Amino acid sequence: MIPDKPGRKLPQELRFLHGLLKKLPDDFQVWFPHGGKLLEDRPQVLVLWREKYGFLIQVADTTQRLAETVMQGELFHRPETILMPADLASKETGMLNAFVAEIIRELGLAEGGLRVRRMVVFPNVRSHTIDEIVLMRGREEPVTYQGLRELDPGEFRRRLEALADEALPPPVISRLRARMHPECLVPERFKARAPVERSDGRELTPAFLDFDQEWCVKNDLELLPEQEESLESRARLVTGVAGSGKSLVLLYRAVFFARENPSARCLLLTHNKALIRELERRMESIRAGARRIECRTFMSWTKSVVGGFTQCLRPEQTRAQLARLKRDISGLERFSDVYLADEIGWIKDQGITRKSRYLAVLRTGRGRATRPGVREAVWKLFKLYQEHLRDSGLTDWHNLALKFHRKVVVRGIMRGGRYDAIFIDEAQFFAKTWLETVRAALQPGGQLFLAADPTQGFLRRRQSWISAGIQIAGRTTRLKTAYRNTRAILEFARDFYQQRLSEDDEDDLNVPDDETLASIPVPGVEPLVVHVSSPQDELAQAVRWVRELTAKPSAHTGVLLIDAEGDRLRDLRRLIGEAHCHLASESRDTDGARCLLASINQATGLEAPAVIVIGMDPLLAGETDPTLSADDLIQLRRDNTRRLYMAFTRAGQRLMVTRLRS
């Protein structure tokens, strides 16, 4: 059922029909009006049985008493109040016939060539009364009439199944869905994988949200009335394999919510500039009628609320300061600067401000256990580092987020007011304090919608949603169909992932299985791996690929070049030509670019028909650092694997990778 619950604005007759149809078995799919919007140019309900038999249903509000006047005629009524058999549901019948005639014209079919069943139902009238009126009409009609009052759900199911005499071809079903719910059409430019010719006329990627995506988008869109507001926000999570449409669902969900609740304040968040630019660009294509959606990275939102902060240290500056400060602290000699920076960041992301709490806190997901003596030394380093920042008039991004958390969560201050709904893309990268701040920024009873893929979660420490106070049990949708990648690309990425990580890795939740791979109808071109002699040759090879891919008008419509090292993007832009490529973190308007340039951390959520990945070997070389402990190495290997898996799965049609010769 889409939506799963009838909207409060729906007429009582439609709510009754919703309850009846909800009792149908799972081989029925039902689309109802969302938000109570009843349009006069299309039927109210679309039903598919076994994904091939179609029904268009219109509800009539005729009462039992009024229907009985048809049989009684002028015997008990004045002529001007008589309802003749031909008058019954004439408006509903005319609309159904006109709608079907229009579809027939659009598809170029012969008259009667669209075998979709048309039905007018009467929730307030008994079935036998409607049957008698149909007999009185004395002619065969393309529309079936059905009384629902006191009708057994099983009998209604049997009547629907008896009417299903001819299957609808997939193109006809697609056209019906597009005409019934055009708001769910997906623009062609959103597709990274090329469509292919099929003998049955189907496109590889549907032109609209698939059933699972639409179900996730349209459920529970209404704001609660004030008298029903609860103290808890309502959270939902969408997850799934790479390319299954998680970000797409989140965008449509935000737009639908804003349309249904025009006075609501909505906030869309993610973790980096490149992705928020892409989300904003896509939203412009679908957001008609939904203007009150604020799009920000978490840190830009933090700065807008906190204000007045000093310069933030870059990660490498933080590591340099910790290397200097730890010299005088016994017990930290065997810990790398990378680990210590990560541990201090984790302390802040957990909102830990007292030594006693740090010494006692559970370290689930941290990988390395630490003895109490080591924790004492780390806490001493943490305090020295914080004092250094204060005395130098500096801060870091973790401090900034912690200050935001303290203001909103602890002190309850939210400048500009709280939000009715917050949507978070790539939520697996949000720290515990970030998520707690988001919850505190919601109105009571507000909605929190998360899109996340734990398989790609390499920037934030592993944590459960419940640890941040987010209840998603029973409110999670997992998308299983991979739309972005060809089979060859996704299999290449999966094999790389599984070769580097053990089968019992507890976070391997969304790596595609054999069934998922087999379901992808496009085999695709095998990813190209080219070995080069030096980093300079690697840059030259990447530039050649970009020029080859963009040389012909019929070539791929977009190229994403990902540098795993992340510090050569401006060199690449100069070599390719600044007029023909954009940095993903800086530009929203990418239509005129030959390619988009991104570091590997910026690439999450992005996609393109062709993807080039360079800098893979320098990234993996960090795993040979002799100062790393066994636990550190396991964590780094896991993070690097996820980084590269994510980078590979950005590609829709072509994947090209450089490797340095050893």
Shape: elongated
**Estimated radius of gyration:** 29 Å
Q: Give the C-level CATH assignment of the largest domain.
A: Alpha Beta
Q: Tell me the domain tally.
A: 4
CATH architecture annotation of the largest domain: 3-Layer(aba) Sandwich
The named CATH superfamily of the largest domain = P-loop containing nucleotide triphosphate hydrolases
**What composes the largest sheet?**
6 strands, parallel
Low-confidence residue ranges: 195-206
Strand composition percent: 15-25%
Strand order of the largest sheet: 8-7-9-10-6-11
What is the CA–CA distance across the termini? 56 Å
Mean pLDDT: 85
> What name does CATH use for the topology of the largest domain?
Rossmann fold
Task: Summarize, please.
This protein is of the alpha/beta class and 662 residues long.
Report on the structure:
The structure is a single chain. 39% of the residues lie in helices and 16% in strands. The chain has 662 residues and is of the alpha/beta class. It folds into 4 domains: 12-180; 213-222 and 230-308 and 404-479, Rossmann fold, CATH 3.40.50; 315-394; 487-660, Rossmann fold (3-Layer(aba) Sandwich). The chain has a 6-stranded parallel β-sheet with strand order 8-7-9-10-6-11. Helix 16 (432-440) links the parallel strand 9 and strand 10. Helix 15 (397-410) packs parallel to helix 16 (432-440). 41% of the residues are buried. Mean pLDDT is 85; it is low at 195-206.
